[in-house]
Design brief:
The protein is an all-alpha fold. The protein has six helices and no strands. α1 packs antiparallel against α2, α1 runs antiparallel to α5 and α5 runs antiparallel to α6.
């Protein structure tokens, strides 16, 4: 049972960690599936950024004295399942790029939402900037990623 801000923060942090770990694998899978070179490059770069983001979580794990167990995120799992269902039905591989960019937009939005919650909780708990700055940087990365994937869809 979650009874206070700190416990909710730890729960959200564990979920965020799981999302990042899943995205490290998913990014390379999406890059391999892409038929568009720009989409492939975006997916590869996203995987690299995600690895950096996992490292950025360390200060907040240290501040909360929490270990990083995995807490699955049903939204991410739903996005992945939806993608797999649609891709399995496609006859034209190029249509897969549209499905991949849809997944990319959904993932970036999920990341932004989770980061906003983490930042609100760190603010309520009054964590120092050593903890919040890496989260702010990760949120900026996700916002940039969302803009980039939107541009890929427009092409």
């Amino acid at each position: 049972m979650i009874e206070n801000d700190r416990e909710l923060l730890v729960r959200e942090l564990h979920e965020r960690y799981h999302i990042d770990r899943e995205l490290e694998d998913l990014s390379s899978e999406l890059a391999e599936a892409a038929s568009d070179e720009a989409l492939e490059e975006f997916c590869m770069a996203h995987g690299e950024r995600t690895t950096e983001q996992v490292v950025r979580l360390k200060p907040i794990f240290d501040a909360t004295e929490a270990e990083p167990p995995l807490v699955e995120n049903p939204v991410l799992e739903g996005l992945r399942t939806d993608r797999e269902d649609i891709v399995g039905d496609l006859r034209e591989p190029v249509l897969g790029d549209l499905v991949e960019t849809e997944l990319g937009r959904g993932i970036e939005r999920l990341e932004i939402t989770k980061l906003e919650t983490l930042l609100a909780l760190t603010d309520r708990i009054d964590f120092p900037s050593e903890v919040t700055d890496p989260l702010e940087q990760t949120r900026a990365d996700a916002e940039t990623g969302l803009e980039q994937v939107r541009e890929l869809t427009a092409v």
